[in-house]
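Researcher: I'd like a structural prediction for the single chain below. Treat it as a standalone chain; there are no partners to consider.
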Amino acid sequence: MSKIFFFASTILFSLVFSLVFSLTSYGSELIVKFKPGINPRKQFVSAEPLFPDLNIYLVESKMSWQSLTKDPTVAYAQPNHKITRRSRTPNDAEFSSQWSLQNSNKAGADIGATLAWTLGVGGKDPLGNDIVVAIVDGGVDISHPDLLKNIWTNQNETADNGIDDDGNGYIDDIHGWDVGTNSGTIAVEEHGTHVAGIAGARGNNKMQVTGVNWEVKLMAVSIPGDTDTTAAVIKAYGYVTTQKKLWSMSRGTKGANVVTTNSSFGIDGGDCKSNEFKVWNDLYNEMGKYGILSAGATANMSIDVDVEGDVPTGCTSPYIIAVTNTTELDELNFGAAYGKTSVDLGAPGTDVLSTIRDGELGVKSGTSMATPHVAGGVGLLHHLMSKKLAELFISKPAEAALKLKDLLLNTVDPIVDLKNVTVSGGRLNIYKAGLKANVWK
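Model: Treating it as a single chain, here is the predicted structure.
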């Protein structure tokens, strides 16, 4: 109990903004500030020092706090109010089932989303630019009612006219690109739709679920199952890079401000350090030049990536954020890979509720579900970051991206299962990261 009381007292006098007082007192316990030179234990055997420099104690008394205030030895007295964390929850119908965003389990295990949302819910960066998260996956149901308002639209392209209106090399790419058909007609696929919802389902719209971002732009880049090759990945990342490069060159009038990609594919056992897989680091480094961090799902098998290898999460590009899967008990999923030098952090990925095709919801598990929590988190950090950090993304995007990755990894919640088997030793906490990003100088 003493830790709780010390915490309450600290909150009272340091004005921590993430807590708010209720009007309910806590039993017969009172917080009392005694006058200088007074020894409270002469009057109250139970007196517990809370803030000795201010002579503030926690005491048990049958007297009311108002009566105790009249005591000549007392500077003031007040109830020991209960406190509750100030958080912000959306009105989405199934939000209570989204444990990864708010978990009532004693283990915690969520990413601190409801606290992060008190700082902001996503959408634009401090400079007023739209924030875009690219979902590189099998396809996305872009007409899903809980995704529709957050789907990215190319404002410089006219739909279905067969002309490359914006001159980016892609005809009729209205909401993204399908590398299988080389067209702007996005494949509809359940896995990618689930991933998109985790990163950015529309929040606070009284329907279904919410993403890590309530508001964000989701760019769909689909790699249909029959084209699952490295060449298809190169084309997909090439599209993303083209859009971000065009955005940078046009100062935001064309292209898209893609800040992160989310990728849930790879090559089990691939040695990214060998000549056989050289292209992968080139891809991530090129996107990194433009400030894009790439969240990648590690293998869905209990292996040490440092030893067994994996592509892309065993690659050495500093612009990759390799993610493994944690559970509602804040443990490493027994079927998820790890690696002290290869896998950066964990994120919730077990039994995650999100959007699926045809306007429905579904529960899925895997590192694929963990990764969009991180990609969505990067998107949210672009909304929460200081103006100075946002300006660095304009002037020195590659440098800014690495600073943001470092910030993300240094604000994780340490968990036992990830200690010494991941780079950070912890699980994503987007609230802690948001606080740091908000005051970055």
